[in-house]
From TrEMBL:
Pfam families: CDP-OH_P_transf. It comes from Glutamicibacter soli. Signal peptide: none annotated. GO terms for biological process: phospholipid biosynthetic process. The chain crosses the membrane at residues 59-80, 149-166, 216-239, 245-263. One of its GO terms (molecular function) is phosphotransferase activity, for other substituted phosphate groups. This is CDP-alcohol phosphatidyltransferase family protein. Keywords: Membrane, Transferase, Transmembrane, Transmembrane helix.
Length: 273
């Protein structure tokens, strides 16, 4: 249902409607960069978008396009590909903030919009390791000394892609399981996701706060790590070498994150009737 809003809103009007406290306080849905700088800047982009005919789902489409282009830039040899990937990761986040803000301003939130947003994030994080694996595959294939590692690295990158998507999907599986069991939606707060610290899993989860490796498995963080690895490879004069080790290290680490995420979900109260 549409709501009549000013056609030329002020920034204060936009912040009141598009960035209410309950949105800014979301623990799990907000990327750490949102509070640091994204929400302070995205409102200016939203101010431009609400004056156009583009829909909130159209903005989400731009977010998805930016994410897919981020993966494609990794196919550019050298450092410039990863540099562009980092830039596009920021563009994707700005559109990701603005699509929800446009939807709130126009009161056009819908399950379809949420679904499209999830498709965007899942496909982006799936494509990044595949594009990285192909990038490394090309570099290793051109070096006779490393040619034998090319195909195994590409396969490991594909496995990493699956694990990244699985890790992101586990949180959605919890909501789906609750819905199918007739339980209500949980608030997006730390308390709702808490695991009792009296259990072994709860204590391990508390320790994980001091080494939050799982937070490195998102598109922004991955693009930054890839850029760092590409700089190291260039400095060593061995294209793809550092990126290869990145894939080899991330694969078992991501497997452990998935196992920990699964055990944490099973031990929490979220899956209890």
């Amino acid at each position: 249902m549409s709501v009549e809003r000013p056609k030329n809103p002020t920034l204060d009007q936009l912040r009141t409607v598009c960035q209410p406290p309950e949105v800014r306080a979301r623990k799990n849905a907000e990327h750490w960069t949102a509070e640091l700088y994204l929400r302070h800047v995205s409102i200016y982009l939203t101010a431009v978008l609400v004056r156009t005919r583009i829909t909130a789902n159209g903005v989400t489409g731009l977010m998805i396009l930016a994410g897919w282009c981020m993966s494609l830039t990794l196919l550019i040899p050298g450092v410039w590909g990863p540099v562009l990937a980092v830039v596009l990761s920021q563009v994707q986040l700005y559109f990701d903030c603005s699509d929800g803000e446009v939807a709130r301003w126009r009161a056009s939130q819908s399950p379809r919009g949420v679904f499209i947003d999830m498709v965007g994030h899942h496909t982006t994080e799936a494509l990044i390791p595949i594009a990285l694996g192909y990038r490394v595959f090309n570099e290793l294939s051109s070096d006779p000394a490393s040619e034998g590692q090319a195909w195994p690295t590409l396969f490991m990158a594909a496995c990493l892609s699956v694990l990244l998507v699985l890790n992101r999907s586990q949180s959605l599986m919890v909501h789906a399981a609750r819905g199918m069991a007739g339980l209500g939606k949980l608030p997006d707060t730390a308390a709702a996701r808490a695991v009792p610290t009296t259990t072994m899993i709860g204590r391990l989860r508390s320790l994980a706060r001091f080494l939050p490796f799982h937070k490195l498995l998102h598109a922004v963080e991955l693009s930054l790590i890839i850029l760092l690895c590409s700089v190291i490879s260039a400095a060593l004069g061995s294209p793809g070498s550092a990126e290869k080790w990145m894939i080899w290290i991330l694969l078992p680490a991501c497997l452990l994150v998935n196992v920990g995420h699964f055990l944490s979900n099973m031990a929490s109260s979220r899956l209890k009737a």
